[in-house]
User: Fold Outer membrane protein assembly factor BamD from Yoonia tamlensis.
Amino acid sequence: MSVSLDTLRFRTTQMGAALALVVLSACGAGNATAPLDDMTADQIFARAEQQLASGRQDDAAFTFGEIERLYPYSEFAQRALVMQAYAYHRDEDYENSRASAQRFLDFYPAEQDAPYAAYLLALSYYDQIDDIGRDQGLTFQALQALRTVIERYPDSEYARSAVLKFDLAFDHLAAKEMEIGRYYLKRGHYAAAANRFRTVVEDFQTTVHTPEALHRLVESYLSLGLTAEAQSAGAILGHNYRSTEWYESSYALLTGQGLAADVSGDNWLASIYRQVLRGEWL
Assistant:
């Protein structure tokens, strides 16, 4: 999930002629080892850009930060702050990337690069949630930060990407619930398993995990002797996901016990079936 220089580099094209002048200024400076205190803001910025292009992200992050220290009121200080967040992100120093991006948003909330800073802030959480087995606190934080980009900057170039990543992070949470539910189911803790699968059906119904969650509910409820709930789960599965392997497995389980995949009784799944699928809002 790492960001690439080509796709997420800080708005280089929008900096236009100003950035070109920066590079020329750096060439004019000529001395790559000159003390930063003796350089102008544009020369320091150019050095940081060169460090970033050569893969020295940590050095670049430091150098961008020095612009804020030495020239806090220059136009380069604002640009350097968001570039520092990007350099830290490329270095996979997500904590410092978040700090720099948040500082930019605190100081320059209305500037044109605020959407990019907000997107970097979200990425600093999102790019750490690969492992389903990890604590899901980062996933929740990524969802919140991505939602900020989507809602606050809907017309920005980052909104579309934020939507896609939001959906993936949302799916990630559902996958975690499924993992825990399967763990309980395998060990015979059927009530605990059913609670996890119910969460997926109720809170993550738009994810790809819903068909399996319904099947696992059939398994769990049959094991608990709750046949009405098992039949209702099978009915929803048959209504929405009849062509899946999960429906075939549930159908075999139910018919094997002389039961039909049909709504039975008055339970939470039967309510979902009647209200959502049949439109009977009682």
